[in-house]
Design goal:
With 89 residues, the protein is an all-alpha fold. It is 44% helix and 0% strand. The protein starts with 37 loop residues before the first helix and ends in an 11-residue tail after the last helix.
Length: 89
């Protein structure tokens, strides 16, 4: 006796729609190139004003930290400590 439950062959296939299993129409897994790259995610984030300002703040903080570190490294290389900073012995 034939089963009344529809099989895979009875399903209507809609062009351009992937199956719910995550596989493409031909049954293969989707192409890895379809996954968004870091550059794609960054471009998408930069369209959002909140993320744009957050990234600007992070970049500003990093640049300020590098410049501050450079200043103190340069200051210690160019100048000797004053006599009052040498300690008493």
């Amino acid at each position: 006796m034939a089963s009344e439950v529809p099989g895979d062959d009875d399903r209507v296939k809609v062009p351009g729609k992937a199956a719910a299993s995550g596989r493409s129409e031909d049954g293969s897994m989707p192409n890895a190139a379809a996954t968004p790259t870091l550059a794609d995610r960054l471009r998408k984030d930069l369209r959002n004003p909140l993320f744009l300002q957050a990234y600007a703040l992070m970049i500003n903080t990093a640049i300020t930290a590098v410049l501050g570190l450079g200043y103190w490294v340069l200051a210690t290389r160019l100048y000797s400590p004053p006599p009052s900073a040498r300690g008493r012995r």
